[in-house]
Each structure stands twice: as structure tokens, then as C-alpha cells.
Design goal:
By secondary structure, the chain is of the alpha+beta class. 27% of the residues lie in helices and 20% in strands. It has eight helices and eleven strands. A six-stranded antiparallel beta sheet has the order 1-2-3-10-11-8, covered by helices on one side. The protein has a three-stranded antiparallel beta sheet with strand order 7-4-9, with no helix packed on it. Helix 3 (33-47) crosses helix 5 (64-83). The longest helix has 20 residues, at 64-83. It is globular, with a radius of gyration of 19 Å. Residues 171-184, 190-199 and 251-256 have low confidence and may be disordered.
Length: 256
């Protein structure tokens, strides 16, 4: 799944396609950036030594660490292709070519799920992304047609990921944890946050980070690259996401 768009796509597409092994080039039937990005992800997995067509995949999967590394490598390759767009093409329009990408991806091997909330910019906000977990997804008896996540115990039997909250309850804050290349911002295994912060139905995934779902654990890691900012209070502009119709109403209310 891909929600967003790859910056400077008409100049990236050809070089991206030419960089693929014939095996993955040939599976693409259209011209959208989403399907070519998926082919690139498969190519990355293959080059890492993991066969996407492996017959043992249904039994074990690749493992969430492998999937996350492959997704990060995919984003890096896309950013590299964008950086290689010649200045002549970048200046084709009076206002310049928009090379900023919105790359909210989701991928699974049937055992783990990796989602990204990413923008190819140091100053812009990414398209919104939320997650919620609990023991069951039930209709609210007090209001017909309204659902909410129930938490009868500390288990996380259900994890939902959505561009916008599906209910009115949403997390009041994004917990801030150690931000490094090796340590995730937060590990959620049901119950309360490690620092005691309360959790409502929906929690915001931080801009430029990955969301990993494996069994009953949800992990959020920062994507540390040229567009990363370690300052948790840094304010990004929502203008790009708003212009694409991919903004979060909550972030607009905060004026970010």
C-alpha cells in the first residue's frame, strides 16, 4: 500500500525502472509510482538475499527486522533517484519542480507488518498516520454505528492502522522516547505506555518513522536520514500534505 506520491516522478520513473532486475521489472503492468515502488521493494529484498517468492515464506516470513531494513533501503533508493534529477529538469517550471515525496507505505509478509510515515523534506509534515490496538473492535452501545477499541486486558489482539482515526477518541500526545538509529521511540505490548502516558483509541505515528507490528508488539522507530530532526518539539509545515488532501485535522488544529 502507498498513500502519497514520489516527488519529480516523471523524471524518476525511467531510472527507477532501469535499475530493477528483469524479474521485478516485468511484473509491473501500469505507470503509477505505487506499483513501481512495490517492484523496487521486491528488488531490494532480492538483492538483500531474500527471495520474495520463497516457498517457506508462508511458514516463517522474512522477520520484521528484514522487512523494515528493506523498506528503509527502498526509501533511500527513491531519495537517491530524486537527488539525481538534473538541475535543468528541476527548473522546468517557473516555481521549480516539486521533488518532495510523501511516502506512507505498508507491507506485510503475512507475519509482520511494516508501515512508514515519511516525507522527503526537512520542513514539511508527512501525510497523517495513526494506529490503535486492543482486544476487540466493537460497536459502541451508546451510539449506533460508532465503533471503538475495547481493552479487556493487556493483550493487543487487534492492531488497526489508518490515515485518519476511525473513531472520535485519539491519542492526546505522542510519547517521546530515546531517538537513535538502534533504539525505537516506543515499544507497545498492550496495557500502558512504558512511561505511564495514557493512550486513547488512536495514537499519532511521528513524522519520518516506521511502525512495526509483530505478534502483540507495536514498535515505532525513527527514520534517521537527511530529512530527520531529533528535536521532538520541532514544528513542520502541513502545507504539502494539505495540498494533496493527505493532512490530519488534528495537526491542522495544532497549527503545525
Amino acid at each position: 500500500m502507498h498513500n502519497g506520491g514520489i516527488g519529480g516522478w516523471k523524471y524518476v520513473k525511467r531510472n527507477l525502472a532501469m535499475s530493477l532486475h528483469e524479474r521485478w521489472f516485468s511484473i509491473v503492468g501500469g505507470s503509477t509510482d505505487s506499483e513501481w515502488a512495490f517492484a523496487l521493494f521486491l528488488d531490494v529484498l532480492d538483492r538483500m538475499g531474500y527471495d520474495p517468492d520463497s516457498t517457506t515464506l508462508n511458514e516463517t516470513g522474512f522477520g520484521h527486522t528484514v522487512l523494515r531494513k528493506a523498506m528503509l533501503a527502498t526509501i533511500k533508493r527513491i531519495n537517491t533517484l530524486i537527488a539525481e534529477i538534473p538541475d535543468k529538469e528541476r527548473k522546468e517550471k517557473e516555481e521549480g519542480l516539486d521533488c518532495r515525496s510523501l511516502m506512507n507505505f505498508a507491507i506485510t509478509d503475512g507475519h509482520s507488518v511494516i508501515c512508514t510515515r515519511y516525507v522527503g523534506s526537512k520542513t514539511d509534515e508527512a501525510a497523517s498516520l495513526y494506529w490503535s490496538s486492543g482486544t476487540s473492535w466493537q460497536e459502541d452501545k451508546s451510539m449506533k454505528g460508532r465503533f471503538r477499541m475495547e481493552r479487556r486486558d493487556k493483550g493487543a489482539d487487534i492492531v488497526l492502522v489508518a490515515s485518519e482515526p476511525l473513531t472520535f477518541e485519539r491519542g492526546k500526545k505522542t510519547p517521546t522516547f530515546c531517538c537513535s538509529r538502534q533504539i525505537p521511540w516506543v515499544i507497545w505490548c498492550g496495557g500502558d505506555w512504558a512511561d505511564g502516558a495514557s493512550v486513547d483509541d488512536w495514537v499519532i505515528v511521528p513524522t519520518n518513522s516506521t511502525l512495526t507490528i509483530h505478534k502483540q508488539a507495536v514498535m515505532v522507530h525513527p527514520i534517521v536520514d537527511e530529512n530527520y530532526n531529533p528535536n521532538p518539539s520541532y514544528t513542520r509545515s502541513t502545507g504539502l500534505a494539505v495540498s494533496k488532501g493527505l493532512d490530519s485535522s488534528e495537526e491542522k488544529e495544532r497549527g503545525e
